[in-house]
Design brief:
heterodimer; A: mainly alpha; MetI-like fold; B: 320 residues; mainly alpha; flat
């Protein structure tokens, strides 16, 4: 008899403990929880700071550049590091630091546009696949696998090369019709082509993960329960699916942002993306490679900055992944 | 098993055809036909004679409908004929035959290097789980994975040539056993190596917690032979499964690496073809690149179940 009472007592004790511990951590939201895990990760915090700084520099670029990024000074060619020119000057006497800052602007503007466009396409296609299912879904999955198996750099180049002539023709006819000089700015053609073709490369990745998220969450018991309780499709979407998919989507967003930045500079490095005189880290590295043996700073500045930024993205991405998917090791 | 292999093979063919169709259509509708491109490139208006161009298009069969031309292109491909380059007029097949072995040697050597080094580092990291060596290796893998080769290549080159002064400027191709190949090889191997390090580390950590390792330890078998006997096999499986990703990574990086180090392989060929809009060459390169990737994926799908019989049943369940 005594024993029985004891056991009953212990179970209630355990229950009380559980209730107490629940009270002690008043239902912290998933986002707050993830944020706490993120800032506990030193690498991720450093990455986050560097990327925030980068976006800040990109936004306020014109106000913080010490010199004009285009003005040439042939008497000051290939100068080394000095207080006047902290990163030196390039082979046309342009200030390297100002060009790196404008390169950051190019990189941030392009990679954010690429990421947003590929997310829009990816979400639409992924959601259609997950909800319609059947043959359409199978086709979408096949298309995603297909695009991901073409070496992306080559595919981007083909898309770029084949979109360019029609776009140029269209710009020319628009110019002849409207006489608006905006249609003569080839720089916009470059920009549109770069983010157009890169978004076409990156959407399958977004589509695959978003489709997977929708499929896995939709079949969870709490969603079935909510549906049984009569919650509307919209309610299920906003209250259950979107909040639960948020973590992987944020991880994905940071990953695609980093990859887009690398692809943009790779593309400009090969001479098909952003063209000089518009500075991009990619075309600056390509310029720097021509003279690096004599004037290493022209190559070192953009390459060093890009190396730091890409590493920051890696560490932030890893931290975000650990923060949002704590159980998953990858 | 045979049914599975045949199933995979049957899927491989339409996928390769679809890639070809997409790329061909882009070149066809976007760029226009090759004869016009050749003439638009010719200096002055002398060569720009609409009637002659029309006649040449007629004789080359370029005014036929798209699908007929595409079919023709595929039939020629089956005979190994990629057409002629627009800039040099040489056959694309022979141009590629010159460049391909260089990229292939570089790629195979880099794959061997990264497989050996990557697995070793991954195993070392896992055996020192959560100690400083593990942290260093993990951070290295994480940092290196993001940095593109056209950044790490030049930076390492500056470090080795100017900073440490231990090598000459690596430029050009002097065979696989020349010292100039060291840096391009290292740079090419280092990015995908990160992938292998993480995979191998995760695999070892998983295996280490299994019962048969504990049994082996309790029997007093030294840990090195435990690693070699019991751990290597489960580690190789994830490494093999990453092969498709590694190959695609190498093909992309070859384009950049060969530009940095002036190596006359497929990558540099691609860059020159792109800058001069040499479509037959670009088309052939995209075709070869994606065929290689798709074939590696096919081989991985076939070999994987042999390494890990559990994978086949899992896959079949998923597909059913």
């Amino acid at each position: 008899m005594k024993e029985k009472i004891k056991t009953v007592n212990t179970t209630t004790n355990i229950e009380e403990d559980v209730i107490k511990s629940l009270d002690a951590t008043p239902s912290e939201s998933l986002a707050k929880d993830a944020f706490l895990r993120l800032i506990a990760n030193k690498g991720a915090v450093v990455g986050l700071i560097i990327i925030t700084l980068l976006i800040f520099i990109a936004l306020f670029g014109p106000y913080i550049t010490p010199h004009d990024f285009l003005s040439q000074n042939l008497e000051m060619r290939n100068q080394g590091l000095s207080w006047e020119h902290p990163f030196g000057t390039d082979d046309l006497g342009r200030d390297v630091l100002s060009r790196v800052i404008y390169g950051a602007r190019t990189a941030v503007i392009l990679s954010i546009s690429i990421t947003v466009i590929s997310f829009i396409i990816g979400t639409a296609v992924g959601a259609i696949g997950a909800y319609v299912g059947g043959k359409i879904d199978a086709f979408i999955v096949w298309l995603i696998d297909l695009t991901m198996s073409i070496p992306s750099l080559l595919l981007v180049v083909v898309i770029n090369a084949s979109l360019k002539p029609p776009l140029m023709r269209w710009m020319e006819t628009q110019y002849l019709e409207t006489k608006n000089t905006i249609f003569r700015e080839t720089i916009w053609v470059d920009f549109v082509l770069v983010f157009g073709s890169l978004a076409l490369i990156k959407w399958p990745k977004a589509a695959r993960i978003i489709r997977g998220q929708i499929l896995s969450i939709r079949n969870k018991n709490y969603v079935t329960a909510a549906r049984a309780a009569g919650v509307s499709t919209f309610g299920i979407l906003t209250r259950y699916i979107i909040p639960n998919a948020m973590g992987p989507v944020i991880v994905l967003f940071s990953a695609i942002l980093g990859e887009a930045m690398v692809l943009e500079s790779a593309f400009s490095f090969l001479g098909v993306g952003v063209r000089p005189p518009m500075p991009s880290w990619g075309n600056m590295i390509s310029d720097g490679l021509r003279v690096w043996h004599l004037h290493p700073h022209i190559l070192a500045a953009p390459a060093g900055v890009l190396a730091v930024v890409t590493m920051a993205f890696s560490f932030l991405g890893d931290g975000l992944n650990d923060a949002f998917n704590p159980r998953q090791w990858d | 098993m045979w049914k599975y292999i045949i199933n995979r093979l049957l899927r491989w063919i339409p996928t390769v055809l679809a890639v070809l169709l997409i790329v061909y259509a882009m070149a066809f509708f976007g760029a226009g036909d090759p004869i016009k491109l050749i003439f638009l490139r010719a200096p002055g208006d002398v060569a720009y004679n609409p009637e002659r161009i029309e006649a040449m298009r007629e004789s080359a069969g370029l005014n036929r409908p798209f699908i007929v031309q595409f079919g023709d292109y595929v039939l020629h491909l089956l005979r190994g004929d990629f057409g002629n380059s627009l800039t040099s007029g040489r056959s694309v097949g022979s141009i590629i035959a010159n460049a391909f072995p260089i990229t292939l040697q570089l790629g195979l050597a880099a794959t061997a290097l990264l497989a050996v080094l990557g697995t070793a580092l991954g195993v070392i990291a896992a055996l020192h789980h959560n100690r400083w060596l593990d942290n260093v290796i993990s951070a290295f893998a994480l940092g290196v994975w993001g940095v593109p080769v056209f950044v790490s290549g030049p930076l390492l080159m500056m470090l080795f040539v100017k900073g440490l002064n231990i090598m000459d400027v690596p430029y050009g191709w002097h065979g696989l056993f020349d010292s100039m190949v060291i840096l391009p090889l290292l740079v090419l191997a280092i990015t995908p190596m990160a992938l292998i390090i993480r995979q191998a580390r995760a695999a070892v950590l998983e295996v280490m917690s299994e019962d048969f390792i504990r049994t082996a330890r309790s029997k007093g078998i030294p840990s090195l032979s435990i690693v070699i006997r019991h751990i290597m096999r489960p580690v190789l499986t994830p490494v093999v499964s990453q092969l498709g990703l590694i190959v695609i990574n190498m093909l992309n990086n070859a384009v950049l690496i060969e530009t940095v180090f002036g190596i006359p392989g497929l990558g540099q060929l691609a860059v020159t073809a792109i800058t001069s809009s040499d479509y037959p060459v670009i088309l052939a390169l995209v075709f070869i690149g994606s065929t290689v990737v798709l074939t590696v994926n096919l081989l991985v799908d076939i070999v994987f179940p042999l390494l890990d019989p559990r994978a086949l049943s899992k896959k079949e369940i998923k597909e059913a």
